[in-house]
Amino acid sequence: MVDRQIKNLTIDAERLWDNLMLTAKIGATPKGGICRLTLTEFDREARDWFKAQAQALGCTVTVDDMGSMFARRPGQRADIPPIAMGSHLDTQPTGGKFDGALGVLAALEALHTLHRAGYETFAPIEVVNWTNEEGARFAPSMIASGVFAGVYGRDWACARADRGGETFGGALDKIGYRGAQRCGEHRLSAFFELHIEQGPYLEAEGKDIGIVTGVQAMRWYEMTIIGQDTHAGTTPMPRRHDALLGAARVVESVNRSARQFPSAVGTVGILEVKPGSPNVVPGEVFLTMDLRDPDAAVIDRIEQEIAAQARGIGRELGLEIAIKTISSEPAVQFDAGCVAAVRTAAKISGYSARDMISRAGHDAAFVSRVAPAAMIFVPCKDGISHNEAEYSSKEQCAAGAQVLLQAVLDYDRRLAERLGSE
Ligand code: GLV
Ligand code: MN
Ligand code: MN
Predict the structure, then answer these.
(1) Pocket of ligand 1 (CB under 6 A)
(2) What is residue 208's DSSP assignment?
(3) Paired residues of 420 in beta bridges
(4) Quick one: which atom of ligand 1 is closest to the CA of 292?
(5) Is the pTM of the predicted complex or chain greater than 0.90?
């Protein structure tokens, strides 16, 4: 009986697609992407829209003091923490329409489906919008789920400043989304996150669904290089302490060091040059480094090599080079029960699937420290993401949403079997 009910619940592909296209207008870029940096007015607008939609479905929306939003649909048992699903509504500066938005809007679509069917779950069901998943404005990424999981301190997180000097806490107040609930106090029975793969494997293999078993390790660093700003016309080459030349060599070193390991990646994503004048030898550079590999020991080796090379570059050019680690996330293995729910969901929904790890970071990785979690991937065109051309089809998005709903219902059924008679 229960199985039959679960199978009959089908999400509405058109409504999901319409909502993806509608919300993509909030912060839309001329090239068809979205620039909706966290805690900006566009973010507020997307949050307000999400809140209104959830409330129209009868949900109660709670906001925690890191701005993360939890829209709850009651179940039979109010004493059991909710089974949650969601992702993030913030984007990269040249972000696409699907990274993050798909996970939140598909979760909302799952709620719509339950609502329309009048289906009563055992546990409450929640949709979560995590604040600042991207880390594009306030580094590091996944800062709110990091506080939620006890990895970062609230005060530290709220004091993080963007490149213009505005703090996370200040920006949260400005858009009116510093909630009353203490971040981390919100308990979850489980968390499921649907996301586009952001890589090429599902598309290349013609698979509909990625059953995500874990996330690779990643580390972020900030580097400051101090030289001396001097006159570009009058300072002879041997007398210069050119911070940008040092930075150029560091960028080269990051690329070379990461390439030594087949599975590793290394990126310098921000480079700020001061004072920024055509006729001044740059005296200061700020840059960021992002290193990732499924094995944290590989990151250790790359980091040591870059640090040694930076010392050499500093000595040779007369520069002070300081490297600070701002986040270090070990590889994550998702909960076997949640992964099994995704596998079952893909199977009963009739989709082809393969197991895989995530090469991108996700809130589910932090949440998995405090609640059972797993992820679902759908293919994206050419594996391209963090790009305005990012694309997954209506059918691919719908498949992911259907598997998300079924995974949550499968987990709910197991929870009912385990706790039902208590
Ligand atoms: C999240 O967008 C990441 O950097 O992987
Ligand atoms: Mn994302
Ligand atoms: Mn992203």
Answers:
(1) 134, 141, 360-361
(2) S
(3) none
(4) 5
(5) yes
